[in-house]
Design goal:
The chain is of the alpha/beta class. It has 2 domains: 155 residues, 3-Layer(aba) Sandwich (Rossmann fold); 121 residues, Nitrogenase molybdenum iron protein domain (Rossmann fold, 3-Layer(aba) Sandwich). The chain contains 12 helices and 13 strands. β2 and β3 form a beta hairpin. The N and C termini lie far apart (48 Å). Belongs to the bacterial solute-binding protein 8 family.
Length: 293
């Protein structure tokens, strides 16, 4: 909804987790404090002026990164540098409702800030967040068109997936305890389920395992993973996960999992599969799935 203030300034009223936020119409300078919001903005043809990139531009997936202009890095997503944010002079800050709820008031003092559910959100919730971002930057029509394009891309590329979707398929991230398993309520878990894969871990199982961080992820020891015994395992890992991955692979329980015994283990990048959670990221996921053998 657009409103006029003082007869001259158009404002957009944006419904978000924080309530209703008034944002100037047709803004150009936006700060993104989560990877999915960078993805959202790039999908809309906007390059953020400030980004929480965890201190390294390489932490942004290449299909998104290649569209970015110079920006100010505000450091870690969990603890962004507020002085750097002020330096960037954004007209809007897009923040995560889990990571940034405690600093929302401070962010809002810098410039109008919206809170959206990315870190703890599933695939559908992140699509809804994209719609809100489209409204906040006065690009609702472009957002609708890009969403239609996204759905078409996913539908077309999914036809090229040749592996057996009927096999129970579990996406996991190596962790100290064993793995952080992604249920059907996680971003990638729900996306795989929408594509037709059988996800053997749903919300009903949540009480069996300890939650991992504050998202829809569940801690499993190698023994618990072997007990669940998925027929296909998608291991999402990056360099930072190497030690945990080695420990997992060297465990006796891991070697007894059906997926391991039958050579149905796929190792993919955690950045694209688990951290990015945007339209462009999910398009790259389905493309990669079509290349699985």
């Amino acid at each position: 909804m657009k409103v006029i203030i003082g007869g001259f300034i158009f404002m957009v009223e944006v419904n978000n987790v924080a309530g209703v936020t008034k944002v100037a119409d047709n803004i150009e300078r936006v700060a993104a404090l989560e990877f999915s919001f960078i993805d959202d903005l790039v999908a809309l043809g906007i390059s953020p002026v400030a980004i929480a990139d965890d201190g390294n531009k390489e932490n942004i997936i290449e299909p998104v990164r290649k569209h970015l202009d110079d920006y100010i890095s505000v450091g870690d997503r969990e603890n962004p540098d507020l002085d750097k944010l002020r330096e960037a002079e954004p007209q809007l800050i897009i923040a995560d409702s889990t990571r940034h709820k405690d600093i929302y008031d401070e962010l809002n003092k810098i410039t109008p800030t919206i809170l959206l559910n990315s870190f703890g959100g599933d695939y559908k919730e992140n699509l809804e967040a994209f719609k809100v971002v489209s409204q906040a930057v006065s690009k609702e029509d472009e957002g609708k068109a890009r969403l239609e394009e996204h759905n078409k891309k996913v539908d077309e590329e999914s036809k090229n997936i040749s592996i057996d979707k009927k096999l129970s398929t579990l996406p996991v991230v190596p962790a100290k305890i064993g793995v952080a398993a992604h249920s059907d309520k996680s971003y990638v878990g729900q996306f795989l389920e929408i594509l037709g894969f059988d996800i053997p871990l749903d919300q009903k199982d949540a009480n069996k395992y300890k939650p991992y961080l504050d998202g829809p992820y569940l801690q499993m020891t190698p023994d618990q993973l072997a007990e669940l015994d998925p027929e296909r395992l998608i291991i999402m890992s990056d360099k930072e996960d190497e030690n945990a991955l080695d420990k997992l692979k060297n465990s006796d329980a891991y070697k007894k999992i059906k997926a391991v015994e039958n050579d149905k283990v796929h190792q993919v990048g955690r950045l694209a599969w688990a951290k990015s959670r945007g339209l462009i990221a999910s398009e790259s996921i389905v493309k990669e799935l079509s290349e699985f053998k």
